[in-house]
Amino acid sequence: MHIPTVLAANVEHFQVLVALFLMLAAAKLMAEIFERLRQPAVVGEILAGVIIGPSVLALVKPDDIISIIAEFGVIFLLFNVGLETKPQSIFKVGGRATAVGVLGVILPFVAGYFIALAWEGNFAEAMFIGAALVATSVGITARVLGSMGLLDTDTAKIILGAAVIDDILGLIILSLVSSVSKGSVSPAALAKTAAAAIAFTVFVALVGSRVINRLAPRIAKLKLDKPFFTLGLILCFGLSVASAYVGVAAIIGAFLAGMALAEATEENHGMHKLTSGVTEFLVPFFLVNIGMQLDLSIFRETSTVVLALVLTFFAVITKFIGCGLGGYGLGAQKMAQIGVGMVPRGEVGIVVAQIGLSLGVIEPRFFGAVLFMAVATTLIAPPFIKFFYTFDRDGDGTPDEPEDVDISGDFARIG
Amino acid sequence: MHIPTVLAANVEHFQVLVALFLMLAAAKLMAEIFERLRQPAVVGEILAGVIIGPSVLALVKPDDIISIIAEFGVIFLLFNVGLETKPQSIFKVGGRATAVGVLGVILPFVAGYFIALAWEGNFAEAMFIGAALVATSVGITARVLGSMGLLDTDTAKIILGAAVIDDILGLIILSLVSSVSKGSVSPAALAKTAAAAIAFTVFVALVGSRVINRLAPRIAKLKLDKPFFTLGLILCFGLSVASAYVGVAAIIGAFLAGMALAEATEENHGMHKLTSGVTEFLVPFFLVNIGMQLDLSIFRETSTVVLALVLTFFAVITKFIGCGLGGYGLGAQKMAQIGVGMVPRGEVGIVVAQIGLSLGVIEPRFFGAVLFMAVATTLIAPPFIKFFYTFDRDGDGTPDEPEDVDISGDFARIG
Fold first, then answer.
1. What three-state secondary structure class fits A343?
2. Is A71 on the interface with B (CB under 8 A)?
3. pLDDT digit string (tens) for A199-217?
4. Segment B327-333 long-range contacts (CB within 8 Å, at least 24 positions apart)
5. Which of A282, B159, B167, B290 is found 20 to 30 A from A373 (Cα to Cα)?
6. Does A8 reside within a domain?
7. Interface confidence (ipTM) of the complex
8. Chain A residues 84-123 with a CB less than 8 Å from chain B
9. Does residue B405 lie within any of the structural domains?
10. What is the pLDDT of residue A396?
11. What is the CATH number of the domain that holds A196?
12. pLDDT digits over A267-283, tens only?
């Protein structure tokens, strides 16, 4: 491509601009098509990534800068979801969310472990494949529910809470698996990692909102233009950094930051609109980047194809059943909503697989199969989420709502 | 810094997050302080960059990713300004803007050229220093005027129009200077570069708005969520890429994209709010990144210090006088508004210097002095912009407005 020589200093900027333009345009074209087909726009945007990515047209190649912008996308997505989530509403379903999170971790891990052994993986490899099946990408579900205006349903709160539990358990498993693969398991170090992650999350969830509520009158008095939006951005980045520092995903920090601000900014529509501008701008890069990870070249080997399909099948089934069981007592539809809401693995599964590859623990065929599973579960779930949230069994024109079911049931009751 | 080993795959993301957090927090802290001192917040945000950058605390180092995010900042800043600028309002002051742009290019170039010769620079070096003094960073002025709600004044329109002319002339000079430094000047190639830049800008400015206005009813009917915002983002990126491709700055494309949408989205406050969310998020990185470029180590050599100060002095004076003269007939206050509005060199001067350095044409001491000039002019201008836009000579409680002055005067009249 012709680029004026005088701009040589800016060639990299130019290429990034071109890549982002193509990602945005492709995402929104596909979103429009999917909306017209009454399918979830997220699926269209992820498929846009598959199409422009290395597997098909090879117009854009995932790289560091794109993956960082993609991460900003999911960070703001969870920040935005947090803004609409009052801490109390999550605490209320805490026991239930824990049940969903725990059950949704055990079953997929076991399935991944044994599938990898069946495909002649070694012990460390099997542990890694198990770990890769554990982590839910809650961003996808949050996006679908958000665009349907359903983030304030009971089951949405349970899914969000369970995703936090899920991420912490995922961290612990990943730490365990990584140290196994290095041949040295230190229970003390593991306990420290787990304790730091849990302490951080619980502390911020409990204290964050109170601190912000108390400071709100002072924040409003700042001379700074748009004080709540500005403080929100700083808190979002700050807690993302802090949570990455203690080892949980940056998006958990972003979610906690949003939740801390939820009460104080509830009526602050201007601030929410500004934040959602950033989110709407960045999220397409997150979705397209997931699609671009799909590597169809694994389909050259039949055994890898079968592995990828089996892995995907069990990734869906075990999360659906495990998390659905966590919702036992809420009725079949809500159990299905929870189950399907936890299915997408998205960027989290991909990151686990990348760590396994970088540690030299997993073979390329396993890596390829996990990538396929991560993208496929993310594409499969949204239509089912839409279905189970709009399905109307009793024909009264609204989705079925089992009445008066106690959704605050704790783990003990169903455990 | 401790980072859990399992996150090794994400160390780079972590570091970027930390850097952006520090930039944002420092920028907004300084903005608050400057607002309290009744000084322009932009100056505080640029100084935040000086403080956390390599010159002082060395907390954050400018790098590729930061500079790309900074560029997004100025792209969205100009896109946002474009959204508030109807094409007609710029066309009306076209002759005047051309006069301002041309005069504001000639004087600084000549000054830079002779200063470099006086400091024993060679011919190619002198040409480059001249070129570095030419380019105005309109983002800074637009930011100050925008935050004062003065973007719809006559002089703001003249400054915006002149900045477009200025950028095109800057491109032509830079092409000329680059080919001189390579020892081969091709008038045909130069003419082609100039023609492409002018044709692109004029074509988009004339046609863009009409096309969008005609398509507006169809855009509104898209199934896509937030259709105008989404199309706006795509157009902004698309025209940024296109303008970079023909050789003018990406921000010119972004400004033209905003302007094309200005009429169709005039009443669309939701869309403007979403866009300004993105702008407010990204602009601090642009400002802080400018400040981080300042390299105080040049102050070790007295002759370089003097060079930097002389360069800065003449950079301010020649733009102020040159552009001010372009406003001849509008009265002293408006002339001063225009003159001071064109003073900041910001990122544009820095890019020219970087190109000179990468071509091996300019020595490090000249590079350091130009960086100093670019940052210093950007820090000096905002308080004066504020002053000349709020100065009230006749004591009637409002800024002086020379009445009934014809601001559409063309270049011929004053030439």
1. coil
2. yes
3. 888 898 889 889 999 998 8
4. B327/B96, B327/B100, B327/B155, B327/B158, B328/B414, B329/B405, B329/B406, B329/B409, B329/B413, B329/B414, B330/B154, B330/B155, B330/B402, B330/B405, B330/B407, B331/B400, B331/B402, B331/B405, B333/B388, B333/B391, B333/B393, B333/B399, B333/B400, B333/B402
5. A282
6. no
7. 0.86
8. none
9. no
10. 53
11. 1.20.1530.20
12. 888 899 999 999 999 99
Give the helix/strand (H/E) hosting B48.
helix B41-52
Tell me the average pLDDT across A218-230: 90
Smallest CA–CA distance, residue B99 to chain A, in Å, is 26
* Domain that residue B264 falls in: 64-391
pLDDT tens profile B46-85: 999 999 999 899 999 988 899 999 999 999 998 998 898 8
Residues 356-385, chain B, touching A (beta carbon < 8 A):
358
Answer whether A116's CB lies under 8 Å from A366's CB.
yes
Domains contained in chain A, number: 1
Calculate mean pLDDT across residues A51-61.
Answer: 92
The answer to the question of residue A400 being in a domain is no
A277 touches chain B (CB under 8 A): yes
Residue in A3, A14, A274 closest to B276 by CB: A274
Domain membership of residue B302 (yes or no) is yes
**Cα separation, B365 vs B367, whole angstroms:** 5
Please list every residue in chain B whose beta carbon sits closer than 8 Å to the beta carbon of residue A12: 64, 68
Q: Give the closest of B224, B247, B278 to A4, CB-based.
A: B247
At B405 the pLDDT is 40
A13 and B276 within 8 Å at the Cβ level: the answer is: no
Contact status, residue A160 vs residue A90, Cβ threshold 8 Å = yes
- Nearest-by-Cβ selection for A14 from B18, B244, B355: B244
Nearest by CB to residue A24, choosing from B5, B28, B233, is B233
